[in-house]
């Protein structure tokens, strides 16, 4: 297993995350609706809005798991926030970064992961909207477009600190 | 560079609507305009030409009187709505269930495609992409 390197702008990234005052807050319908939609759209068992804190990833919204956080060292999200594009791992067993990750070897037995970085207007990537499956799979261009759109909707909600939603 | 297709999506569910609109734009599939109701849609159809429409239809009434509300389609196909290409515009219908009555009604109205529940953004986007070269045709079913 490879632990992801710390982003070069980690201090700014964490400052932007803390400024949102969102960590450890209760679930909100505006995020829950997006993860539920994504789970149905992509037919995956687990969808997360994951925010990357100093030593953990914390889930603002989730489908398919009751866990609210995991260690940052084993998180897929910490790898996904290193790039602008969506990070797709079609089969974790074929990827040396993740093949012996405890989230692969034990529950939830991740085999497929797609994480769209939550990139704010500042360019800072605070976490991911991610799809997880227990079997290998791929995404086509249309799937990638839809995941990118749902990620954009999460970013819009994160940027909308008043929590106003239009339906 | 070709002008993007102008498509109207009539769908009450906000998240599905926004996902389709934003994804179509990001992938340069089409310029999808959104309406949450038939009344809004009719006003939009009168205001500019569209090369296709995806219209969600609701089942109304109860028991043996229940039927799908095709009023917007009827206004386009048969009405004097002032919509220039209303009689020939390719239309895809979103319905919860494909009943024989619905399919007959859609054939009479030259509907090109029926999309059944669960409604996925991907299926709607594929239907929209299909408008690029699709004349009105006999209904086909999409799960």
Quote the beta fraction of chain B: 15-25%
CATH class of chain A: Alpha Beta
Sheet with most strands: strand arrangement of chain A: 3-2-1-6-5-4
Indicate the proportion of strand residues of chain A: 15-25%
Largest interface, with counts of residues having CB < 8 Å to the other chain, equals: A-B, 17 and 15 residues
Q: Would you identify the regions of chain B where 5 or more consecutive residues have pLDDT less than 50?
A: 135-141
Text of the CATH class of chain B: Alpha Beta
Question: What is the strand tally of chain A?
Answer: 6
Helix content of chain A: 25-40%
Radius of gyration of chain B, CA atoms, in whole angstroms: 14 Å
Question: If classified by CATH, what would the architecture of chain A be?
Answer: 2-Layer Sandwich
Q: What's the overall geometry of chain B?
A: globular
Tell me the structural class of chain B. Answer: alpha/beta
**CATH-defined superfamily of chain B:** Response regulator
For the secondary structure, the number of strands of chain B is 8
- The rough form of chain A would be described as globular
Give a short account of the largest sheet of chain A.
6 strands, antiparallel
Instruction: Calculate the mean pLDDT score of chain A and round it.
Output: 95
Q: How many structural domains are formed by the residues of chain B? A: 1
Number of helices of chain A: 5
Based on helices, strands and strand pairing, what is the structural class of chain A? alpha+beta
